[in-house]
What we know:
The chain is about 40% helix and about 20% strand. The chain has helices at about 15-30, 40-45, 70-80, 95-105, 140-145, 150-160, 180-195, 200-209; strands at about 5-10, 35-40, 85-90, 115, 125, 130-135, 170-175. The model is unreliable at about 200-209 (pLDDT under 50).
Amino acid sequence: MTLSMVVVAHPRAGSFVHALGEAAASTLVDAGHDVRLHDLYGEEFDPVLDPSEAITTEPGDAFTSGADPLTARHRRELAEADTVVVAHPNWWGKPPAIMAGWIDRVLVPGVAYQLDSADGLPTCLLRLRRLVVLNTGDTSPEREADVFGDPLAAIWERCVGAYLGDASVDRLLATPVSGSTVEQRAVWLAQARALAAGGRTHAESRASG
């Protein structure tokens, strides 16, 4: 059975971020995936990198090095996953600290990639085929792109994505959420399901959102 991870980061359990993540998870379940749904705040994931994990070219046993049992579990699931979905808000042009810490502690050398030298190019170690990124915000899409340059695209599509080998990176930016109608939220949820199913691209999602 195909393994998929869905990783959600928002401190309020009833947030729209959770709704997006759960919509993606249910779509993957319906498609026959073995889905591991993680609420980072609910799990009390520790985002603080241990000094023993701050390594690049000599990972040792990267699945356990410096890791608590929960982090080790996330690393093992990532290594086996076909699809990963991450859902989080845009806070000051970045993910919440707990999601940034998840990147630091889970997408580590020896699990996600390897480097032959500190300044070398990464070789992806994952079997991952797709990364789906679901973001919320409160800035209009035009202002987000024209004024701020959509910084979350830089993080997920151009930085993290560069370490994922041939995996596709698709993204939905649901914004502005504040003041949005029930109908608009239904559109965003439908787009999240479509992305999870492997349907539409980030550009198409933004155009119709």
